Amino acid sequence: GTYDHIRDTGFLQLPHRTTLNQYTDFTDIGCGYNPDIIKRLLDDHLTKVPSEKRICSLLFDEMKIKSGLVFSRKTGKMVGFTSLGNINDEINLLEQQMSKENITEPPEIATHVLAVMARGIVKYFNYPIAYFATTSVNSGQLYIIIWDGVAALEMRGVKVLAFISDGASANRGFFALHKLADGSNVSEDGVVFWTPNRFDKARRIYFFSDVPHLIKTLWNNLKKSSVNRTRNLMVGGKEIRWAHIRNAYEMDLNKNSLAPGLRKLHKITFDHIHLTPRLRMRVNLAAQVLSKTMADYLELQGHEHTKQQNISFEWLTGSLIV
């Protein structure tokens, strides 16, 4: 085949097919927490690490995928249906039977994948330990999935210190489910930010919203902010519009100026302003638009609305301005 031909020519140093098979076939691939992968995590990264340094955070994120069914010749099963773990699947089945007079329907075709990753804090490692096929997971389903992951790690001597996710409503709801009766784990702003570790009551697990995702969310909402669009952001009675950002870029790019090559917003490009669905996922573009450099340039323009935009940047991003 083509792969063997390229490998035989020596143009690219490619591994032998046997080596590839060893990587792909070392375990059965499927939804849920895979004990073989967790064992490999321990063998590759934590074999000689003392117990006090076996600390990690658990990251989880849900991604949109292309829906469809594929037949697996290895397992003889159709792949592409939702799979949220045994408990969640049984709950979904029970709900179907109770609501539809015992008429059981096949699982839905998945539209999203929830990925769960363990990331080392003292000893560096990034290891995906599970994935689940979903149609947009809810907070109750997350509760079961994430605590199953904590159990899988804690029982193997890996201590979980934090949960990290983006600001999706399901994730915020998942954090809120951990509110204690006495309210001791709730901040002054009403945010639940830690919970006791079920497997060691002396330790806490802290909740974090991933900062890059928050920046990207703010950026996307700002892009939609207009009188005639889906958002109309306002601070102190003043509007915050994407048009202000676009106008600042065009003014800085002014090719008719005496020095067209000299720019204050030298990192801002066409891609920052004219976004496509793919570009909206670029966190670095969001951080560069929501930067102190942009805020200073808006203030330099001297217009009333751009002064307000600068104030709004500082209010919205707070310490995120760099």
From TrEMBL:
Give the matching InterPro entries: TNP-like_GBD (IPR048366), TNP-like_RNaseH_N (IPR048365)
Q: Which organism is it from?
A: Clytia hemisphaerica
Q: Where is the signal peptide?
A: none
Which segments constitute the Transposable element P transposase-like RNase H domain?
Answer: 31-175
Q: Where is the Transposable element P transposase-like GTP-binding insertion domain?
A: 213-304
Q: What is this protein called?
A: Transposable element P transposase
